[in-house]
Amino acid sequence: MAYSSAEQHHEPHSFWTRYVWSQDHKVIAVQYTLTAIAVGLVALVLSNLMRLQLGFPGRFAFIDANHYYQYVTLHGMIMVVYLLTALFLGGFGNYLIPLMVGARDMVFPLLNMLSYWVYLLAVLVLMASFFVPGGPTGAGWTLYPPQSILPGTPGSDWGIILMLVSLLIFIVAATMGGLNYVITVLQARTRGMTLMRMPLTVWGIFVATIMALLAFPSLFVSGVMLLFDKTLGTSFFMPAIVSMGQALSYKGGSPILFQHLFWFFGHPEVYIVALPAFGIVSDLISTHSRKKIFGYHMMVWAIVAIGALSFVVWAHHMFVSGMNPYFGFFFATTTLIIAVPTAIKVYNWVLTLWNSSIHLSVPMLFAIGFISTFLIGGLTGLFLGNVSVDIPLSNTYFVVAHFHMVMGVSPILVIFGGIYHWFPKVTGRLMNDTLGKLHFWVTFLGTYAIYFPMHYLGILGMPRRYYAYDNYAFIPASAQQLNAFITVAALIVGVTQLVFLYNLVHSTFRGRPAGSNPWRATTLEWQTPDTPPGHGNWGAEQPEVHRWAYDYSVPGMAQDFVPQNSAVAGGGDDHDQKAAGRKKT
Amino acid sequence: MSVAQSARHDAGGARDGMPSAGKPALWVFMGVVTVLFAQFLHAYIVRMGYADWQRLPTLPTVWLNTALLLLSSAALQWAQVAGRHGRRAGMRAGLFLGGALALAFLAGQLWLWRQLTALDYAIASGPASSFFYLLSGLHGVHLAGGLVAWGMTIRRVGHNGVTADGLLAVELCARYWHFLLALWLVLFGLLFIVPPATILAICSSA
């Protein structure tokens, strides 16, 4: 395990090779994170603009119907793909996988660097669509043909082309990154780090990466074929159609085929975002409640089961597209089954908290907030998983409320929690606690204020996707008041994110020094010889792992945590203890 | 693709006593490409079931190109076997020949495109044409990516006998070539050889 000879490891010295063209996973992680946050801010502003129109219709003249649809589309696409996916896999995955498994870096550092730059290119191409004639696409984030590429939809000239090209580039980036994460977990774990000793964060990111590698090709296929339909006149998804009084040359294609391909990617995508969040939350809860995670093995298998099941539920997004009732029955059943491993995870988090020593630090607040929002969002998922309930609710605000709770707010809370938690390792400084708590409470309560009322709007039948709600007799006037309230809440939550940004920047330079292990955590990334970790992470010798990641409050120990690389006897999970018992007898 | 290429680039650097990551990485990558083409073929077979389906003519060029790719794959296999027996000259010869034949295959595919376009089977002329250009084009892009890796392998096998590093690169190339050959044979079969009725019968009974 000598460190000296490997040629890749001479430390880069110039500013450019160190911070820009860096092949160090930690720098690449920060690049990914900052880019994702920047593009996420764009999406946040778009959502607030959207809310301005919904809360105060017609008051802002520059938000016409076209702009509104462009905001909706780009908000959704950026948040799901360019923020959440990129930040969890490219940001957290890059930073944490090598450190948590005791590796010196990713297995393919050059590929890792390329992955970031290709991701950045995808972001730039997408952003460029704001500046082309006609603006970005307004087809809705699902980009359903035929409308997405036909005149009448905003951005159907250039916006949609840039959107699709950007997605294809993103998929290349995600594949390069994903290959790295998977192989690093499989091949580069340090001595003693068995798979069943990995922290759940690594498990979540690892399984999510495998899912991304299997699901993104489906988006690639639908993207390429739609791009061909748009630019080369093929008819993969385009039926014979009359558009604006003119018969087009398309004929014979199947729009439903696009929906199948899209959702075969789209549903696993939910869990590509959720599984890393599950993993991170497990580690935050265990660390900040000073107690071993309840049912570690069950947690791992639940992650794997959710990953597998999520590939057979996609058509529950298409109940309203029309399908064979037996088909609908099948997909409703699989959708309800996936609630079982998910519920196991929620129980285990709560059981971990039970009788533990809960420290309400900022990361912990976000973790507990996540359990709450995820539970609410998950429960409404059970409603929508049933075909007969889904059909009347599908095109209403109920669905908006559901998916924002379960895959918008929940993963974002985990991202914040994770950033507050690992920031001290990345910078060597702590983030400001008071500002952190302010950020948490406004964000947490604010998102409830935004999304909880939407469930009721949905049950009232208020349709989603609409630009204006004039002349719909069945929508009571009070709905408009509720909409205005939601908009005010959304603006407050939006502005509060500036507190987070300020905290991030200020603490990077002025934060209180953190020491190497401020949370007294067991996992390897907190045991590096330097903080922030130097190039190669471990100095002269890679750590050797002797136990699982959750030895908190082990009876009879001097400290209330035992690092994974500590060789002291005692502790360990049930399997370790059994093995130790066998040795003794 | 750059993925494969870069994977190869780093492959030799087995670090800190770890087993080389190049082989598993290539397996995972081939898995991803398999899923990608499986999705395309799923769409293809669904579309094939529509009443207006008309297959493309099987020009002699298709057979010629298939033979070229077959020979290319065989040449790389030869390079690998020679390398394993420590014969550097044989390894280099096989490597060069394999690459040249792959280039010839790509040129042949472009020629086939021109022939079909001239026969009024342009890309937008019908669903079978659209799928043909899409699938053969994407297969070609993957082979072109392989050729980039091949170019770096040529540099790596150098002049000092057969190194473990160089041999590994040759083996990875050969494996990827066999994979692309198998992929092409599947495409070739589904696009030109197996009657649509048979494909549909198999897929609808499954």
UniProtKB/TrEMBL annotation, chain A:
This is Cytochrome c oxidase subunit 1. Keywords: Cell membrane, Copper, Electron transport, Heme, Iron, Membrane, Metal-binding, Respiratory chain, Translocase, Transmembrane, Transmembrane helix, Transport. It catalyses: 4 Fe(II)-[cytochrome c] + O2 + 8 H(+)(in) = 4 Fe(III)-[cytochrome c] + 2 H2O + 4 H(+)(out). It is an enzyme of class 7 (translocase). It comes from Pseudogulbenkiania subflava DSM 22618. Cytochrome c oxidase is the component of the respiratory chain that catalyzes the reduction of oxygen to water. Subunits 1-3 form the functional core of the enzyme complex. CO I is the catalytic subunit of the enzyme. Electrons originating in cytochrome c are transferred via the copper A center of subunit 2 and heme A of subunit 1 to the bimetallic center formed by heme A3 and copper B. Its EC number is 7.1.1.9. It is found in: Cell membrane; Membrane. Belongs to the heme-copper respiratory oxidase family. GO terms for molecular function: cytochrome-c oxidase activity; heme binding; metal ion binding. It comes from the Bacteria.
UniProtKB/TrEMBL annotation, chain B:
The keyword Plastid does not apply. Residues 1-196 form the Heme-copper oxidase subunit III family profile domain. GO terms for biological process: aerobic electron transport chain. Keywords: Membrane, Transmembrane, Transmembrane helix. It holds the Pfam family COX3. Gene3D superfamilies: Cytochrome c oxidase, subunit III, four-helix bundle (1.20.120.80). Its main location: membrane. It is found in: Cell membrane; Membrane. GO terms for cellular component: plasma membrane. It is a multi-pass membrane protein. GO terms for molecular function: cytochrome-c oxidase activity. The keyword Cytoplasm does not apply. The chain crosses the membrane at residues 25-50, 62-81, 93-111, 131-150, 179-202. Belongs to the cytochrome c oxidase subunit 3 family. This is Cytochrome c oxidase subunit 3. It comes from Pseudogulbenkiania subflava DSM 22618. The lineage of its organism: Bacteria, Pseudomonadati, Pseudomonadota, Betaproteobacteria, Neisseriales.
